[in-house]
Design brief:
mainly alpha; 69% helix
């Protein structure tokens, strides 16, 4: 016996993009009575979490490539690692320019991001000795501009 699945009954479940457009129209019109507050809160919380996850992901990638560039003696790879460093810094700068309050999250997640990046590079280059702690400043401006290698 097969069971029929009931189709979604509200706009949010049927068509997210249309729901977003309608919510924007309602907000602009001041129509707060008909606004789907619960789903709006969920979407805003999701957006905030998404930005924080992006900061963490890009920070891990940045630290990973700085570690490679500083400690792995493979000159043929330097350019590629430096390009990745430039790209990650650019994306982080743009995100932080758009949402400066995320600098707080950048700093709060730095140690955990370092640990993850360190685990990655240790796995990738198991014969290289990497420092167990970050050897440089972890300030946002420093991380987004300083060339840590000679």
């Amino acid at each position: 016996m097969t069971q029929a699945i009931a189709p979604p009954t509200n706009l949010y479940d049927r068509d997210l993009d249309l729901w977003l457009e309608m919510s924007i129209i309602q907000l602009k019109a001041g129509d707060f009575q008909n606004l789907d507050i619960d789903n709006l809160i969920d979407e805003l919380e999701g957006l905030s979490g998404s930005n924080k996850r992006e900061i963490e992901s890009r920070l891990i990638r940045l630290i990973e490539h700085i570690l490679k560039r500083c400690y792995v003696d493979m000159p043929d790879c330097y350019r590629g690692w430096e390009v990745t460093i430039i790209n990650q810094r650019d994306k982080l700068k743009r995100l932080l320019r758009q949402s400066p309050s995320l600098k707080r999250h950048f700093l709060q997640s730095f140690d955990e991001s370092f640990d993850t990046a360190l685990e990655i590079v240790k796995t990738e280059y198991d014969c290289i000795t990497f420092p167990e702690t970050w050897q440089f400043s972890s300030e946002v401006e420093t991380m987004l501009s300083l060339k840590f290698w000679n």
